[in-house]
Amino acid sequence: MAKSYKVKIMPSGYIYILFTIVLSVAAVNTGNNLLYLISSLMLALMLLSGLSSLMNLLFLEVSLSPSRAVFAGTPAPFRLTIRKRRMESFFLSCETLFGALRIPYVKGQVDKSLWLSFPKRGTARVDNLKVHSGFPLGFFKRFKICSLDLEVLVYPKPLPREVPALEGNLYGSAKTTTSPGELSDEVKELRAYRARDPFKWVDWKATARKGQIMVKGFYQLQGDTLVIDLSRKQRGWERRVSEACFLVLEGLKRDLLVSLLLPDKRIGPGRGKEHKKCLLEALSVT
Amino acid sequence: MLRNVYPLSISRFLVYGALMGSVGAVWGRIPFPALVVFLLSYGLGLALDRKGVGIPGLRPRILVPLVLLGVFISLMGMNQDNFFDRALGILIIIIGAKLVSPKKGRDMLQLFLLNFLVVGAAAITRWGLDFAILVLVEAFLSISGLVFVYGASEEQDIALSQAGKLFRWSGLLTLGLIPAAALFFLIIPRPTWTLLAWGGGAVAKTGFSDRVSPGAVEEIQSDPSPAFRIRWIRGRPPERPLWRAIVYGSYQEGGWEKGADEVIDFPEGSGETVEYEIVLEPTESRHLPVLGVPLGVWSKHIKPALTTGYTLKAPKAIQNRTLYRVRSDPVSDIPGHGPLPYDEHLPPRLRGGLMTLADRVARETDLETAKAAEAFLQKGFQYDLSPGKAPGDPVLHFLYESKRGHCEYFASSMVLLLRSLGIPARIVAGYRGGEWNDLGQYLLVRQSHAHTWVEVWIRGRGWVPFDPTPWAAVAKGPFLKGSLSQLIDFLRLKWYYWVIDYDLGRQMDLARNTASLFSAIREGKGKMAVDLKGTGFKAVWLIVGAAGLILAYRWTARHLRNRPKTRGERFVRILGRYGYHKAPGETLREFIGRIAAQDAPLGRQGLVFVEQYYRVEYGRQGKAEVLDRLLMALNKGRWND
């Protein structure tokens, strides 16, 4: 992990430096060794403050990962793991371009939620995380730039709209599947074996673990299908993509089969988490 | 239950503590009105902060004119003599105004910085070791306060345990401050010029003046405070040193007056010489104690001259602690000119009274007579530091009536007895003996060691010293000789030596010594010319040793605390060395599964261990030795990689 340290003098630091200079001049002017002593103490405090702030940021390892789906314009929690290999850290501020977090104390490993908000859909890069702190005295602020190289796929911002009637509308049409009993490839559940279940559905690892025959249950491609048609780029494209995102979420929540037609891609009807992910990803990058 | 505290509140109480210390140190120099303003503000501010309220209606536009009024009053009548006190008063008024104002983070910062200035002012009024203690306490309070001020800018409230950790950090920072500040103090350049010099804060002792009466000696001898300290540089210290300060010649109305003290050149040394440094406490006297015959003297602050009595005399009274280095010939017989008329002078009205006793001590030679007089006084008279006021001449009263007195009575009697026989004699005032401080390897001489003795002119030898005062009776001061008092006095000496009197010359010496140390180390052990057992190095070894012990303790404690207690923990630690860290809540199987996805061979090896581990720990099957072997193999694998 690439890292670099920078220091910025805060206004209080400038005042402190000014006081140190005033006392040092007084010491030189009067030849009073006790004033020299106080000037030395102030210089030493400056030095130790710098060292302490460095130690505060030393041995820090950070990692950042999204905890759940990230939608544009909506703050999403990211799991920020800070590991202090030695000693302890006080009053850390973690900052990215998309959000910041304050952590009062770190020793060992600390997991925190860093809420980030991305303005646009698509692929967003979080190149680095700036960790900074003015500890111990607030005279100087020290920064550590931690490289993250995190790529986040930001889904479009869901824009609420009414789910179209089954007869069809602007976004496409809803219809009943013509092939009852047709199953999706996506596993819905693991359940106990029932008579007439084909043997190819048996999950042998789960069977061994449970001590009884377990089979995979698949989503049925049967029911109402919501076809979202975005095959032609039109005016207000971003708004339409956002509304489509809402429809995907809402449609799947209502247990509809959702299909998506994009200018360069076509995704057939389906249900389940994987299908949802596939649809949202397609909407993100279209 | 987790308890939270407010860092800003903590910093408020710390600033009150810091101000109490610093203002207390300059208490005597604050003008009375400013002191009253400060005390009222302090009490009021403390009460308001405890209740968490402010003074209603107190706005900067009301407060600032009030402060300006106080400043204006202080500025009126300010002159060169009272400049410091008035400026201090202004500072104290400003602090008072800040204390009654609302105290947010920025205000607290300003208060701590203003407090630094008060500590700076204390540097001008207090020079003793107590200043060092004050600075350390102030440093801790200020650092802690500033840490909490910063904490308040980050978090409104923090856990109590975190507050404890912040205090611990502040303590460590304060400790670290000592060597770092010492380093800066030693290397900051000292110019040889100053524009404005301030006097020290220590009170000058009366010391020996040009005229001495029995009452004055009594006063000096009853004072146990240090008079001066001597550090030997070269030569063997005498067992019972006599520190000559002043020579008295003529006796007038119960007191002695200084004889002529024309300035003469320092003589050339012949034979054994000694060299020593004396740190003299402030005194109203101009006479510097010295051993034997001084051959040369060096000092930064004063330019002493040698007088005809072979004593050292400064141009003016020594009002500040002063260090001077002397090279002496430690002879007991003082050479020089022969007796002057007043060395033989005897008031005519005393002659008759003295002759009866003088006849009893008269011998064939002057030397024998002097010895007889010394013995006569030592045996027949008693030492008493408070003999009371004598009716008439104190010497006659001592010899014939009271037969009790302190050293000046003994010395005066001997001188007058010898003069009545025509033998030139004089009184010498100074100090006798001292307390050897083993820890610091120096001699401490107190005011209570003040002494007067006799010098008799013996043809062919010079001025030969005699001490008619019974030895055992002298210098029984109320001082302690315990190791603690030795330590405190040692620290005090070091403080004067390394802080108060540190100058460009000492800085150059230090630089030269450091350079020679490094060159000696570079040249190799065999050629090392530096005394690695010297006192300075002892201190370095002590610090290094203490630091080593602390580090060793911390390492051991951490090692023991973090030591894996089960084989499972050892397994996790070994994998940590491979760069894989178990997440909280993750089972060993999940952990090894995660590793297997990235490093299949390590994953396989780990899986074997995990399966065996579960069998041993939970299934009570398998052998623990197998686990140990697996762990060893896994551990070695790391090095083989």
How would you explain this protein's 3D organization?
The complex is a heterodimer of chains A (286) and B (641). With 286 residues, chain A is an alpha+beta fold. Chain A folds into two domains: 1-154, Immunoglobulin-like (Sandwich); 174-285, no CATH class. Chain A contains five helices and twelve strands. Chain A is elongated, with a radius of gyration of 29 Å. The radius of gyration of chain B is 36 Å and the shape is elongated. In chain B, strands 3, 5, 6, 10, 17, 20 and 21 form a seven-stranded antiparallel sheet that branches. Mean pLDDT of chain B is 81; it is low at 196-204, 475-480 and 526-530. Chain B has three domains: 4-187; 211-479, no CATH class; 564-640, no CATH class.
Short description:
The complex is a heterodimer of chains A (286) and B (641). Chain A is of the alpha+beta class.
Ends distance of chain A: 32 Å
Poorly predicted runs of chain B: 196-204, 475-480, 526-530
The CATH topology of the largest domain in chain A is given as: Immunoglobulin-like
What is the succession of H and E elements of chain A? EHHEEEEEEEHEEHEEH
Total domains of chain A: 2
Please give the most extensive interface between any two protein chains, plus how many residues each contributes.
A-B, 45 and 53 residues
CATH class of the largest domain in chain A: Mainly Beta
**How much β-strand is present in the residues of chain B?**
15-25%
In terms of quaternary structure, the protein is: heterodimer
- What is the CATH architecture descriptor of the largest domain in chain A? Sandwich
Topology:
The complex is a heterodimer of chains A (286) and B (641).
Chain A lengths: L2 E7 L1 H20 L2 H25 L2 E7 L9 E21 L2 E18 L5 E12 L6 E15 L19 E3 L6 E10 L11 H7 L3 E7 L3 E6 L7 H17 L3 E6 L2 E6 L2 H13 L1
Parallel strand pairs in A: 10-11
Antiparallel strand pairs in A: 1-6, 2-3, 3-4, 3-5, 5-6, 7-10, 8-9, 11-12
Chain B lengths: L3 E2 L1 H19 L6 H20 L8 H16 L7 H18 L4 H21 L3 H26 L3 E2 H28 L23 E2 L1 H8 L4 E9 L7 E11 L2 E4 L4 E2 L9 E7 L6 E2 L1 E2 L1 E7 L5 E3 L4 E2 L8 E8 L18 H14 L4 H15 L1 E2 L10 H9 L1 E2 L1 H14 L4 E8 L2 E3 L4 E5 L3 E9 L3 E5 L16 H18 L3 H20 L11 H28 L4 H11 L10 H11 L1 H18 L6 H17 L1
Parallel strand pairs in B: 15-16
Antiparallel strand pairs in B: 1-2, 3-6, 4-8, 4-19, 5-6, 5-10, 5-17, 7-12, 8-14, 9-13, 11-14, 12-13, 17-20, 18-19, 20-21
